[in-house]
Amino acid sequence: MTLNIDSIYKNTYEHYLQAKSNIIKKAMFEHRADAISDVIPGFEADKLEFGSYDKENFAVLFVDMRQSTQRAQNVGAEKTFLTMHVFLTALLEVVKYYHGKVIDIMGDGLMVFWGGATAREEDNMVKALAVQNAGLCGRDMLKVRESVINQIIEDEKLGPKVNIGVGVTFDSVIVTKIGIADSYDVKAFGDCINTASKYANNTVNKVKVSKKVKNEWPSSESGRICFTFDRVDGAYYLESRS
Question: How far is CA 30 from CA 23, 27, 75, 82, 229, in A?
Answer without folding.
Answer: 9, 10, 15, 11, 43
